[in-house]
Write a sequence for this structure.
């Protein structure tokens, strides 16, 4: 096995006799970006919750590289409203890093995202975009090996989406971490992922895996390879819905 | 931002002016009305003020005030502690919830006068314990219910987030449960406080031989209506002081993170 950060084999999940995930197998190599792409309600978030240890699979195995740290960017920012921007970061950092290192990383991340001037503000005093940025850097502030991103751009406007995407790619490149991205937007998946796992409707299973080699920073949607992949994905989803 | 601040301070001043004017109108109305009645029925503001000064000079004011305040603090303090603890225990265990929840509802629905009569039977008159018991039994369900509903409203998504980041149970309690709960507790304390004063005076009126309630009952039986009014004024002042100078600043402090903008 070549340096895998995450290995999922035959994972199943059942909620109240309703099968949410059926025999999911996938992996994530160190330093790569993988994307889970599928219709809403196909169990993507459930899979993330299992990776993060919030719920157990009903079958199969989830193996994280020993000692790896997992950061989780939730769909809606889950910030502690009674803690300031900086305190929200400290809250998660305390269990991973020494004080000195934690402060250094904090300042770096706050500066990079333009939040340094707001470090003593409470979440209620921030705009939606700022909260989303804080949610992102909180996950980064523990120096994660694996970053789980659950539709981080779902409720932000296009302009901010592009900025956030750039920001994430920059961190990813600098830190050499692995990204696992949930999305239902094929374009986003194609632009960001080294590997895309296409999930079927409920119960979710991997119906196709697509791989891309082109460096993320050079990708545009006009690129022929990406464009045809995009078409392929859309066709698969259309077929699924037609059934 | 500056414009916004100016408008808040202007509106604050405006509100204050309105409230003060309202109070002055009531005072004037009281004064005019009192001129038409015997002081035995309705003493004037001036007569009430004189009675209040006499109470202060005689020392009766501060002695009784302190007795009532002390009893209220003891009874209400115990109620806060019990209500809070019970709410936490019951939230954590569905078994104890089934046992105690109906009981608390029963305690709450029994009228205070029934408790008071029982307290007099059980503990007798002239006892500290009668007013303290009444304050406790009337206010502890108020605290319990408010804290309990506060516990129910805690955002479990935040707890889940904390679990992802390897937070310990202690961190979750100190940094999530407690800060989420404190505003509910403070507002519960504020709601219960009015009940506490009323129960305290009520119990003293009937079942005690000291305190403001007892002084009220003495003034009543001696037909010293202006003294009755003076004591009522003292009670109002006491409640206002606690509410505006103690509870509200605490409330503002514990919810400081919940205000939008600067």
């Amino acid at each position: 096995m070549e340096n895998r950060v995450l290995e999922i084999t035959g994972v199943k999940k059942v909620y109240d006799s309703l099968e949410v995930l059926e025999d999911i197998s996938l992996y994530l190599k160190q330093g790569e970006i993988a994307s889970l792409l599928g219709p809403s309600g196909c169990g993507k978030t459930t899979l993330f919750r299992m990776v993060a240890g919030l719920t157990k699979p009903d079958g199969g195995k989830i193996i994280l590289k020993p000692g790896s740290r997992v950061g989780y960017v939730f769909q809606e920012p889950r910030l502690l409203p009674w803690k300031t921007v900086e305190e929200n970061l400290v809250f998660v950092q305390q269990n991973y890093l020494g004080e000195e290192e934690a402060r250094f990383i904090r300042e770096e991340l706050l500066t990079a995202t333009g939040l340094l001037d707001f470090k003593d503000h409470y979440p209620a005093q921030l705009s939606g975009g700022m909260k989303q940025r804080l949610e992102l850097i909180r996950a980064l502030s523990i120096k994660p090996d694996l970053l789980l991103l659950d539709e981080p751009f779902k409720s932000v406007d296009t302009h901010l989406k592009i900025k956030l995407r750039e920001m994430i790619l920059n961190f990813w490149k600098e830190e050499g971490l692995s990204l696992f991205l949930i999305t239902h937007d094929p374009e986003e998946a194609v632009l960001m992922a080294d590997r895309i796992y296409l999930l079927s409707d409920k119960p979710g299973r991997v119906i196709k895996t697509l791989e891309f080699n082109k460096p993320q920073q050079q990708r545009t949607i006009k690129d022929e390879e990406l464009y045809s992949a995009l078409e392929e994905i859309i066709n698969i989803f259309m077929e699924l819905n037609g059934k | 931002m500056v414009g916004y601040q100016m408008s808040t301070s202007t509106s604050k001043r405006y509100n204050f002016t309105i409230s003060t004017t309202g109070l002055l109108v009531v005072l004037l109305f009281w004064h005019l009305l009192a001129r038409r009645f015997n002081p035995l029925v309705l003493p004037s503001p001036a007569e009430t003020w004189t009675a209040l000064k006499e109470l202060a000079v005689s020392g009766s004011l501060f002695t009784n005030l302190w007795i009532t305040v002390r009893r209220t603090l003891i009874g209400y303090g115990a109620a806060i502690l019990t209500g809070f603890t019970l709410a936490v225990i019951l939230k954590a265990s569905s078994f104890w919830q089934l046992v105690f929840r109906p009981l608390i509802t029963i305690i709450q629905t029994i009228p205070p006068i029934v408790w008071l009569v029982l307290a007099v039977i059980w503990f007798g008159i002239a006892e500290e314990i009668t007013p303290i018991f009444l304050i406790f039994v009337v206010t502890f369900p108020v605290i319990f219910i408010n804290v309990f509903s506060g516990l129910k409203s805690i955002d479990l998504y935040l707890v889940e987030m904390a679990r992802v980041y390897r937070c310990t149970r202690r961190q979750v309690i100190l940094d999530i449960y407690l800060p989420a709960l404190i505003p509910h507790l403070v507002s519960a304390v504020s709601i219960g406080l009015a009940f506490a004063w009323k129960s305290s005076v009520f119990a003293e009126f009937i079942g005690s031989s000291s305190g403001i309630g007892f002084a009220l009952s003495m003034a009543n039986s001696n037909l010293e209506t202006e003294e009755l009014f003076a004591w009522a004024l003292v009670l109002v002042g006491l409640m206002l002081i606690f509410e505006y100078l103690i509870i509200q600043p605490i409330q503002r402090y514990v919810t400081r993170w919940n205000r939008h903008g600067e």
Remarks:
- Residues 126 and 208 of chain B are 4 Å apart (CA to CA).
- Confidence is low (pLDDT under 50) at residues 1-5 of chain B.
- Residues 1-36 of chain B form one domain.
